[in-house]
Amino acid sequence: MSVYTPVSQAELAAWLRNYSVGALRALEPIKSGIENTNYFVTTSQGRYVLTLFERLPAAELPFYLELMAHLARHGIPCPAPIADLANALLGELNGKPAALVTRLPGRSIERPGAHECAELGALLARMHLAGRSYGGYLDNPRGPRWWRVAARDLRPFLDAARSKLLEAELDFQAGQRFPDLPRGPVHADLFRDNALFDDGRLSGVFDFYFAGVDCLLYDVAVCANDWCLADPVADRGLDPGLTRAFLAAYDALRPFSAVERAAWPAMLRAAALRFWLSRMHDLHLPRPGELVHAHDPEHFRLVLERRIAEAPPWIGAP
Question: Model pTM?
């Protein structure tokens, strides 16, 4: 659990007077996440999620909130930001930028099957299509520029083998150029714990606070590296059946180009590299916080090594 900025019931009740959401009934810290402080909020009118932004630049926050509002208007089941009485989506609470969004129904699933992967593929394609008309712009905040900075900061913590792997992969990715890949707003962090299912249906996706503009295929690769593993512990290869279900459902709504299919192996490696780096950063360079949770970076080191060794072929739609 990550709670960097405590919020009391009295503090939140006073803050909620700026909103038309009714009286506060309950406040509960959310037991996940490592970037922001999050609480479940129940009022007399509904259920919400309160987020206090701990280190995201204030100038970037409108991109995320307005993207969520845009997608929600287009029928994407994502949190819809609640405007305050002055019609602002972003406020301030206990010295931190803060936002209130709708709470989605459902639960995350640990081991998705082909049905769940197909649900995800279809929803991701719908998100990418809806994002075409979004006017905001922000470069992927955890893209190649951030990789280089993070790698420099992490070098003192790496042994020789990990340092060699990291340098080799950074060199490989620096040589990849994909000017013809379709681009647009991407979620960039749509892991299983950022999606909810209700009665077999994908009922929502959330945590858009790593979103940015990048290759749409990058978003697809991030999902595949988490949702389509043969075994998240024993075998980090891509399961052919899960991957095919995911990619085919996406392709049915937004067909992949030949350039995207050719870029697939390199993009899977890029997605694995990003999360290996970010998890190492959270482990070795943590921020002080009350109840902090960090993920094991070794998982994505092993995913990256597997993608390098295998160069996974395209096994989706032909």
Answer: 0.94
